[in-house]
Amino acid sequence: MGCVFGRQISSSVPSSSDIVVEKGRERDLAVPSGRREKVAVAGAEGGAEVQNGGDQKEEQKDGGTRPRGERRRSRPNPRLSNPPKHVHGEQVAAGWPSWLSAVAGEAINGWIPRRADTFEKIDKIGQGTYSNVYKARDTITGKIVALKKVRFDNLEPESVKFMAREILILRQLDHPNVVKLEGLVTSRMSCSLYLVLEYMVHDLAGLAASPGVKFTEPQVKCYMHQLLSGLEHCHNRHVLHRDIKGSNLLIDNGGVLKIADFGLASFFDPNHKQPMTSRVVTLWYRPPELLLGATDYGVGVDLWSAGCILAELLAGKPIMPGRTEVEQLHKIFKLCGSPSEEYWKKSKLPHATIFKPQQSYKRCIAETFKDFPPSSLPLIETLLAIDPTERQTATTALRSEFFTTKPYACEPSSLPKYPPSKEMDAKLRDEESRRLRAAGKANADGVKKTRTRDRAVRAIPAPEANAELQANLDRRRLITHANAKSKSEKFPPPHQDGALGYPLGSSHYIDPAFDPPDVPFSSMNFSYSKAPIQTWSGPLVDPAAVGAPRRKKHKDSQKDKNSARIKKEGM
Ligand SMILES: Nc1ncnc2c1ncn2[C@@H]1O[C@H](COP(=O)(O)OP(=O)(O)OP(=O)(O)O)[C@@H](O)[C@H]1O
Q: Locations of Basic and acidic residues compositional bias (predicted)?
C-alpha cells in the first residue's frame, strides 16, 4: 500500500498516446487555475511526486508557443491492447491490480495508483448509472476532491475497457471547461477503481432545479460560452462527448462550468471515419441522426445537445421530453421540421424507412421561442438543424451574435453563490416528497398505487457506452445474469432503450401513463417559468413547481440517507 499516482514508472509501452512523460523528468501538478505547481507527496513509497500526465507532453512538444487545443495530437488507440508482458509486470509491481493492467494497460501507463487510505470520504454526492461519486479529502495535500467509484461487472474485461477509454480520453483533455482527472485510486489487491477528479459543488441540472434559481440572459450566455468552449476543446482533440446534458455539466463556486462524465465519449477521426454506435446521448438531448440510426456522425451530435441545453435554460424546462425514441423523433420533427426528401436520400439513414413521417412538418423554432432573446434564435436555429452539417462547429457557435451582442455574458465569478446543488439532491428531494405523498395517500385511501405524476421523470440515458462491443456484453450478461448485484447498468441490452422494459422503480423507469404536456412554447414568456415536470437527471427544471419544497427536515434526512449509503457501500 502507500502508492502515489503520477510518479513516472519505467515503462516502454508502445503507446500511441502522447501522455507519457520522459523518465526522470521533473513532474508537477497542473492545478485547475492553469498554474503549475510542484507537489512533493510523502506517500509510503516515499518522495514520489504527483503529476498530471495529460499536461506534460503538450509542454514538451509545444514549448508553450502553440495555443492549446489548436494542435492535432496523435491519439491513443481507443480499442486498447494489452501491454507487453514486461510492462504488465512493471505495472503490477508499481501497485496496479493485474486485472486492470491486463485490460487497460495503456490507460494507466505512466501513472502510479494512489492508495484508498490516503483519502477521507466526506459524503456521497452523486450516483450515475455505473458509478457512485463521493466528496473526499486528500489527506496528503488537504485538497477536496471527487472520487468516482466505478462499478464493474465481475471485473469483466469489456466493462474495464470502457472505463479505460474514459481515463484515456480524460488524460487527453486539458481545458478550464473540462473536468480534470487528477489520478486513480486502487491497489494490487483491489477489485475497484476510483477516478480522482477535481471537486465541483454543483451541476447545471441540480442548480436549475434549485428552488428560486432563475438564470438571467447574461448568466445563460456565461454558461453556454463555457459549455461551447469546453466542447471546442474536446472536438479539437477529436473527442466526441456523446452525453451532453445538465447533470454532466459541473459548476464550481466560482461559476466555472466543466464538462464531465466521459463514460460515453469516443475518439473520432474526421479523415478516417469508422462506424460508431448510434445508441448514445440521453434521449431528450439525442439528435435526429442518431435516432435514425446513423453510425457515421461527428461533432454535430454534441452541438445538438448544446442547442437543447441553450433552449432549456431560456425556457426553464426541457424542450423535447420524449419518452420513447419514436416520440422523441416526433417531437423533433414537430419543432424543427421534418427532413427534406433530399436529406432522406443523401443521408441513407438505417431507420429512415421506419421513422419517416407520413405527414411533413414545418420548422417552427422562431414562432415557438418567440419570447427568447432575439440574438439567441439564430444560434438555436443552427444548433437544432436537422442536417448535422448545418450545425457547424463549437467555434462558429462561439462567434455567433448571441455572444457578441448586449447584454454580454457575465463573468463566471459574478454568478450568484448558490448552496450546493446536485442532480442527486434534486433526486433525493423527489424521492422524499414522493415517499411522503405516497404515505399520505396510502393513509387516505389504503394501499392504492401512487399517482403517476408523483413519480420522478428523467431523461432516458443512452443505452450503452459502445455498441461495437455490445455483442460481447450481451453474451457476458447472460453468463453473469444470476448475479444481479454486480450487474452493470451502464450497458443495458438494446431492448431497454427508449421507454421499453425498465423495471418499475429502477432509475430508468418512466411511467408510460405519464404524459408530459406538449409545451405551448408560443405562450412562453422569457421569464424562465418552470414546467410541472418533476425530474432529477439531465433536465433543468424546478422541483418547487411540482410541490417538492426544500425543507430542512428533508435535507437532514437526505444527509442521513447519504451517510447510511456510504457506510453500506464502504470505500
Ligand atoms: N468532479 C465531480 N465533482 C462533484 N460531483 C461530481 C463530479 N463528478 C461527478 N459528480 C456527480 O456525480 C454524478 C454522477 O457522475 P457521472 O455522471 O460522472 O457518473 P456516471 O455513472 O457516468 O453517470 P451517468 O448516469 O450520467 O452516465 C454527477 O451527475 C455529479 O452530480
A: 20-39, 55-68, 557-571
Cβ pair 336, 307 in contact under 8 A:
no
Predicted confidence (pLDDT) per residue in 293-349, tens digit = 999 999 999 999 999 999 999 999 999 999 999 999 999 999 999 998 888 888 788
Q: Where are the domains of the chain?
A: 85-198, 202-423
pLDDT tens-digit map of 477-500: 333 333 322 222 232 222 222 222
Gap between the Cα atoms of 302 and 282, Å rounded: 11
For residues 213 and 467, give the distance between their C-alpha atoms in angstroms, rounded to a whole number. Answer: 38
pLDDT given for residue 423 in this prediction: 66
How is domain 202-423 classified at the architecture level of CATH? Answer: Orthogonal Bundle (1.10)
In the predicted structure, residue 56 carries a pLDDT above the cut 80: no
Query: Complex ipTM, two decimals?
Result: 0.96
Our answer on whether the CB atom of 424 is closer than 6 Å to any ligand 1 atom is yes
Judge if the beta carbon of residue 130 lies within 6 A of ligand 1: yes
- What top-level class would CATH report for the domain 85-198? alpha beta
Nearest CA to ligand 1 atom 21: 128
Range scoring the smallest mean pLDDT among 1-5, 106-110, 298-302, 522-526? 522-526
Residue 148 known to bind ligand? yes
Burial of residue 85 (number of CB atoms within 10 Å: 0-12, 13-18, 19+): exposed
| Centroid of ligand 1 to alpha carbon of 15 (angstroms) | 29
Ligand 1 pocket, 465 CB below 6 A?
Answer: no
Dihedrals phi, psi of 174, to nearest 5 degrees: -150, 95
What residue owns the CA closest to ligand 1's atom 17?
Answer: 261
Nearest to 247 by CA among 239, 255, 259, 237: 259
Let me know if 55 is a catalytic residue: no
Residue 459 pLDDT grade (very low, low, confident, very high; cuts 50, 70, 90): low
Measured in angstroms, how far is the CA atom of residue 478 from the centroid of ligand 1?
28
